[in-house]
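Hi Y.,

Following your request, here is the sequence exactly as I used it, all 113 residues.
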Amino acid sequence: MLNLDYLKEVSGGDEGFIKEMMTIFQSEIPKNLDIIKQRFAESDFQGLKDIIHKYKASLLTLGMASTVEKVKKIEEECMGSKNMDAIKNNLELLLTESENTLAEINKWMAERI
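Below is the corresponding structure, written out as tokens. Let me know if you'd prefer a different format.
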């Protein structure tokens, strides 16, 4: 989930910076999630690993450590056994957490308009 304390710490409390990070994430979440779903549906493990790795950087920026752990598990499965059930389970958790974070961001942004 979104870690506002982390964002405040790394930004030195600069709300403009926090808003900029959230705006970027807000626009990127739907695109990335669509690509992630597509790569999984195609069993494109290399493509899935690549987009998941890219997405991990966005999650780290927002201090989403627990979500990053799910991403790491997906990456490991894509490189290793390619266990579809394990990938699917972690993807479902990732998608849920990402959608919940997007809702949090939308609420935070709406409160500042």
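Helices lie at 4-11, 15-41, 45-61, 65-79, 84-110.

Thanks again,
Q.
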